[in-house]
Design brief:
Blueprint: E1 2-5, E2 14-19, H1 20-30, E3 35-38, H2 45-57, E4 61-64, H3 68-80, E5 85-90, H4 91-96, H5 98-107, E6 112-117, H6 132-135, E7 144-146, H7 151-168, E8 172-177, H8 178-181, E9 184-189, E10 196-199, H9 250-265, H10 268-271, E11 274-277, E12 284-289, H11 293-305, E13 310-315, E14 317-319, H12 323-332, E15 335-340, H13 347-354, E16 359-364, H14 373-384
Parallel strand pairs: 3-4, 3-5, 5-6, 6-8, 7-8, 12-13, 12-15, 15-16
Antiparallel strand pairs: 1-10, 2-9, 7-14, 11-13
Helix pairs in contact: 1-2, 1-7, 3-5, 11-14
Length: about 375
């Protein structure tokens, strides 16, 4: 992996009042996105719209695909050819991409996918895809899912997502949803010289000595082969050995998947990010992610006005699970409130990590709208009584 600065011609430095979907595009373009393939679906359409304008301006390519399956496999090919790539869809479209995503996990193709979640069949907010983002594909793999909570973070986390994809040769999912995707807020885009980008590492070995799926460590990432230089790498979904040859050998198969999974799970602490608010003296904690973060912080402030010492742990990513931060919170509070916009999904991961050290209570809502701060406050009061 090499670290470089962003290109000035790609970065719209300055203060903007921008739609969330547009901010995500600007983050991707700043990160060096060179190829986008997508199929129309609300509430993600503005991403394709702006990509179709911005990529040609910076020498990139935009493809209007005939469906989601074409989109994801086009990404796979472009990524393996050396490009930084992205697609965007919404929950129903994300269903159709699972086969291609599974292929990308297996051949270790770095791609970025924005899933702008919505309720089933309607353009209302939801976090119902939480488990699908982790377990939707067949086979063994580890997912990386980042969770922006504002228009600013849609920009910032898009850059983070591309850097993670390049560093770990893995698909990275940007978890968005209708609320933040379609709102307009202030966006501060820094100078290009202030933006660090990660680029994949290419092998210096000859074609004869190169192992397409061999790494220096048991949990490392293979170096890429440069395109058109005679390496002739086979990227197959089938069981393959370090040479890339299709070969059903149980020992080779086990070693491959221990590495494919381990490169993420063994680097969990390096990948995961969290932020804490008012946790220094907290007796109760809200653990949440995405657009539910802001009403949760407001609810914690309201609770403190009424004498309840509540803090907030914001999960900047949910996969891999930020276990160290959640475990630490569970040691220091009597109750954790898991705020989610679904019927209760990630609360199970929080409960697993808390391991009985404190009570974990879900605060859920599945009505196409994020929680209000008052709803969260009232639910906490009931949980405390």
């Amino acid at each position: 992996m090499s670290i470089v600065k962003a290109s000035e011609n790609r970065v719209m430095t300055g203060v903007h009042f921008m739609l969330g979907n547009y901010a995500l595009v600007e983050g991707a373009v700043s990160a060096g996105c060179e190829f986008f393939a997508g199929y129309p679906i609300t509430p993600a359409n503005e991403i394709s719209e702006r990509m179709s304008q911005r990529l040609p301006q910076v020498g990139g390519k935009f493809v209007q695909a005939e469906d989601e399956l074409c989109s994801i496999f086009a990404l796979a090919g472009a990524s393996l050819a050396g490009a930084k790539v992205m697609t965007a869809t919404a929950s129903a479209g994300y269903n159709y991409m699972q086969e291609g995503l599974g292929y990308c996990y297996t051949v270790e193709a770095p791609i970025v996918v924005a899933d702008v979640m919505r309720t089933r069949g309607d353009n209302f907010a939801s976090y119902a895809d939480v488990y699908q983002m982790r377990y939707g594909c067949s086979g063994d793999y580890e997912a990386i899912v980042v969770c922006p909570s504002s228009v600013q973070e849609l920009y910032d986390y898009a850059i983070w997502a591309f850097n993670l994809a390049e560093e770990y040769r893995n698909p990275v999912i940007i978890m968005s949803e209708t609320t933040i995707a379609l709102m307009r807020e202030r966006l501060d885009i820094p100078k290009a010289s202030e933006i660090e980008l990660y680029n994949r590492k290419y092998t210096t070995k000859s074609p004869e000595d190169y192992l397409p799926f061999g790494a220096d460590t048991p949990y490392g990432c293979p170096d890429f082969a440069p395109l058109g230089k005679g390496y002739n790498t086979i990227y197959s979904l089938n069981p393959h050995n370090e040479y890339g040859s299709i070969d059903w050998n149980p020992d080779e198969f086990e070693r491959l998947y221990k590495r494919v999974c381990g490169k993420i799970s063994e680097n969990r602490d390096k990948i995961c990010r969290t932020e804490s608010f008012m946790m220094e003296d907290a007796e109760y904690a809200i653990v949440t992610y995405g657009s539910e973060v802001r009403p949760s912080i407001d609810a914690a402030k309201l609770a403190r006005e009424e004498g309840m010492k509540v803090g907030v742990l914001k999960l900047c990513n949910i996969w891999p699970v930020p276990e160290k931060a959640i475990a630490e919170v569970s040691k220091n509070v009597s109750k954790i409130f898991a705020v989610e916009m679904n019927m209760g999904k990630y609360v199970n991961e929080i409960s697993r990590v808390a391991a009985g050290r404190c009570e974990v209570l879900p605060i859920t809502k599945n009505r196409g709208l994020i929680h209000t701060s008052t709803e969260i406050l009232n639910a906490m009061k009931k949980g405390v009584c």
